Fold these 2 entries.
Entry 1:
Amino acid sequence: MSTISFIWQFGEVALAVAIAPLFSGWIAQCRAWMQNRSAPSLTLPYRELRKLFRKDAALATDASGLFRATPYILFGAMVLAAAIIPSLATDLPFARAADAIALIGLFATARVFLSLAAMDIGTAFGSMGARREMMIGFLAEPALLMVLFNAFLLYRTTALPSLVDGYAAHHQTIDPSVIFAAVAFVMVLLAENGRIPIDNPSTHLELTMIHEAMLLEYSARHLALVEWASSLKLFNYACIGFALFVPWGIATHGAMPGVGGAMVLLIAILSLGVKLGLCGALLALIESLSAKLRLFRAPEYLATAFLVALLGLLVHLLLGANAHG
Amino acid sequence: MPILHAILASSSNGPASNLHRLLWLIAAWLLIGAAGMLRPRSLRYIAHLLFPLGALAALGVALTAGGFLVSLPASSPAAGQAAQTLILPLGLPDLPFHLRLDALSGFFLLLLGLAGVGISTFAAGYFRSGTGSAPGLLGLEYHLFLASMALVILADDAYLFMVAWETMALSSYFLVTSQHRIPEIRRAGFLYLLMAHVGAISILLCFGVMQGGSWQFTFQAMRSASLAPFWATVAFLLALAGFGAKAGLVPMHVWLPEAHPAAPSPVSAMMSGLMLKTAIYGVLRVSFDLLHVRFWQWGALTLALGLFSAIFGAIFAAVQTDMKRLLAYSSIENIGLIFTGIGLAILFDASGMPLFAALALTAALVHALNHAFFKSLLFLATGSVLHATRQRMLGKLGGLIRPMPWVAVLTLVGTLAIAGLPPLNGFVSEWLLLQAFLFTPQIPYPFLNMLIPAGAAALALILALAAYVMVKFYGVIFLGQPRESSLSQAHDANWLERLGLGWLALGCILIGVLPRLALWASGAVTDSLLGERVHRGSFPWTIAPIAPQQASYSGLIFLAGILGVVGVTFLMVRLLAHGRVRRTPAWDCGYPWQTSRMQDTAEGFGQPIRHMFGAFFHMERELPSPSDPAPQYHIHIEDRLWRTLYLPIARAVQWLAEKIGVLQGGRLAIYLLYSFLTLLVLLVFVL
């Protein structure tokens, strides 16, 4: 573990924190184009954050310390996750702190804190949002775990850096199970980040909202941190997807300083940018093509994701059994 | 760590010194209990002198057991055989009390002692004078309960084991029924006693099978007996049924949600945190130590029962409206997780994969330890809430974080821990269990290796459901607006109660941040039972059970990372922006007549679960009509098993009793006839 890996580490975290709102802005822009609306500026999320940070925070009279601490904890959890996920390089000092399963745990921590904060004020919408968010959470986690299980079967590891390295070692064969896993992962990503088939990030219609219902009482800098954490969460999920399914360009072990290192860095940043651009367009496309589901259709949607992932697992096991037998 | 190591190691010299010391500590518990009877009505004497002394003895038990575990040679093949034994001149003439301290009993004594410290400290501040049993009597039963649990774990022959087991059941029965004037509590106590004895009969039969024709009832004889596969399976099934009844494994769980809420909170904490673990100990002792073979079918059965119990417990916990019943169902869930780990361990062991078996067993052991901490913490916290508000129903609580900040913060630690969130301890064991599941496709039995991975998904569902349940538990009790006006007068816990809660919360944090502490203790057990221990990674703050490239986790980096970012962010926000705050009323969505009754109730929070898992429940619902001037909503949820399994059995027993009751004619001549006939039959046998 050298100095250079710490530099990669901090560079990666700084990049993630800096461009996560840009990614959200890009998705909003693509959505607007596809829906034939005039698109908001790419930098709109940054300007919104600046506006929110300047305002005075309005806190409900009964808000407890938990309510005030939660935005910071959410932001902290998402930045830590960004430090663990290999989005640019795999030789990261923080990456050994958690494998992919522990990463799901970290996201769950953030979700529980947000739900508790939503219940803190004691308005009807807050607790309704908390209940729905936790429901989506427990429906999504089995599917996500099956996706990781599949990755484990392919590369005998759940540590994301080792997964990327393993992929780099034998990427010439693509196991068919990966396709199932990828479909399931995208479905989970949409659900976990409050995107369209499950939740609509741009609605404040009381009866349908989930994520926004929990944020109703937040304002100013607290809201800014929560929004920033949400865009970081989406960015993190996208990067987990890249590490699992399209880890091209990520600097693997042995990325060294010097001219070669600069090249590797350039390739890593460029490929991340291209992947984020495509991913954002794809998400916008999915969101434009699909309608929001009724809340109690969400179990069916996530059960589908789970079954797709399980199918991938069975495909792998059956093919593997044939290969061995 | 090295200093702690040195202190612990220096306290263990001599062949059986740890065992001797433990016996003295158990005797001290009995003495403390008996001393309470000197002045049974003096609350100050009992609560402020005897219970703290009991807590000290518990600390002694934990240190002694920890010292013993340290003194075991680490990761050598002979580690398993290091044990201290002692024969007491008590008991039956030809079967004196045998005692044995080995890694397994050391681990469970450590658990008992560590959690016992917190519970006894809390209890010192908890008991109030009032209706129910006298404080002296409670103290006697309480310390007898502790001592008998320690003896169950130390017993090395079936006779002492059963004596201690029964003492444990009876003393806890009297503790449960300390408010015996309330009919529901008497009924709950009866159900508990009944199930305890059904289980005890099963365990007794299990020992009867395991002696294998030698008629020697020491555990040593059972270890050397070689049973035929059929009889070994019978013994295992009896043990699973008997200990499962004590642990609350579905379908033998019905007593748990009745007895736990009925008992005073420190007793609920002891029953859930500690007593259920003696059943886990029993299963491990029988299946991994006393029986010399293990078959994969046992593992598959245990795994299936464990997963089903866990799902069942989580779903039922989500729809409860009584906070202690909710925790009781959550205990069923956690016991299910522990049995899942044990089942996996048996499965791996029978498939000849000792390292993976050690991983699964480690997960089960660490989860048992964790559960002792966080479930005790939460049950004790409900006690504080109960004292402050006199309410057990979630629907009448709310907003307690403001009048009771200490209890609220310490409970938050327990809530996050039991929800399985990093960087607290619950996550460590659940992570280990998931890691163990990842290796199940390598099990060499076709179909099983494809079926069990789906179990991992069930496990993920259970863990996320547990988080749902705990958000409900904490959110409804401590957050939001008080649902009753009397709640604003609630008072925080006293300093002894805070100390007890704080001790347990500290344990949750410490094991979560430095999971190696727990792995070190469980490593001694897996060494002795399976000859393997999981690797622990190259840094003291990370754990990597199989290999660092495969998977690793570090609670310390998690905690430091989150706290570091939180600190930096806070400073940046304050420096670059500002910290101005304006207090306003909450946004009312344009409807200014909101009341605190419009928050989600406990029923409301459980509604998605009722909707999705309706098949599990027997529901009776009264919905008001739209034109009703005084609308009433009422829902009653019952366990389907109660109607489909227990009531038929109860009716059958009743029917049988009535048939046999015919014999009781009530006339002297008939009884004399019976005696005469018995004599005749006996004579026929003799001649």
Entry 2:
Amino acid sequence: MSMGPLPAASPSLARLVQELHKLPGIGPKSAQRLAYHLIRLPEDEALALADAITSVKRNVIFCQDCQNLTDISPCSICQEPRRNQGQICVVEDPLDVMALERTHCYDGLYHVLHGVISPLNGVTAHDLKLGDLFKRLEAGSVEELVIATNPTLEGEATSMYIRRHLEGRDIRITHLARGLPVGGSLEYSDDQTLRRAFQGRQEL
Amino acid sequence: MPPPRTYHCDALILKHIPFGESGLLVTFYTADRGKVRAVARGARRSNSKLVGHLEPLTQARLTIRRGLNLDDVEQVQAIESFGALKDDLDSITNGFYVAELVDGFGAENGANHPLYQLAIETLHAVAGESQPYLPLRCFDLQLLNVSGLKPELYRCVECRRELEPGRHRFSPALGGAMCLDCRPTDALVMPLSLQAVKVLRLLDRSSPGSIQPVRMGQNLKREVQGLLEVTLEYWLDFQIRSNSFLKDLNRESRSAVYT
């Protein structure tokens, strides 16, 4: 969406508002508020933000192995010697790696797809880092592939696509358990969630 | 009197995209209001009461609060989750196909109850179906019918003479079959075999949930699907993406390429 000319007599301020407006979830009013906030910031704080953006754009690359965003390739996770090299956890985006790392319950490697198959939104398998995953698996050292895509329809479709591609390969393919979230309630759960919760019930 | 602030509707969830910090912008097709987009705030949180009921390809009953720009989803309860449709990649892709076409042909603020019924009936028909070709092609043709774009299959669209048994042509732009004697002015004109005319007429008389199996060769299947695909894309003015994905899947399955 293009914005009309600002009444302010400052082309640089108008440009900043326009650039901020391009960010996801930022409407024209929010863009103006953010721009005025940046103007009021001390110069060193505003320049630190500009420098962080420049640095990210110049230095952040895809890890050659896991495709996560990193400053060095291979990334620090892929280089960690204590990691289980025979396990790869497939996630949708880099934030999922951070969420799983916070749990300290997984010590294998990752592979970031940067999205999920979603034909309705114009995303097909070719738009994801799936080819890199399949090449990585050809090396033969991977024993288990843990699919940790979100339990959405698109996440499930991506998971099924990977499984179909690897049919007949000597790799154990697992996915994260499906069911009720901690703090959730049965009453408000949908049929699919309840069905999967029942299928995945465990001995006490 | 101002309209009530909330309203209830039965709808088919078509798609959603992230909205804000933890919300979803959901597109659904309602029985009595046409296509609606509304925000489900907080729906991406793992303990949200909404999210499971708002998955695409779910028939749900929603309570919507009217907003200034976008409406808000207040409550939602799944009526039919189409579990069998979501257990298999090909079925999911067929479901995506139905949702994409309903999204494309469904108008906002334009109620089309037959279109809603058609979508629900088709999802029931293809869920867990190993041979979904005929229900899907029937959906294609009936979708054109309920959208007011019914192709002419009995008379030539140019000279209006009744079609005689034999080979013909088909023009999406002119709206249906043409006899060979009439000169086509449309660049998209395609050959139309007698068998394809018969299959199209059968699809026209049937519904996705009740169409009887017919023995068809691969060439005839390709011809009928091609005619319908070109016609749908002509009216949509864009390529059907889930169709391309399904074709890719079939190609990959056949060649079993390990990239």
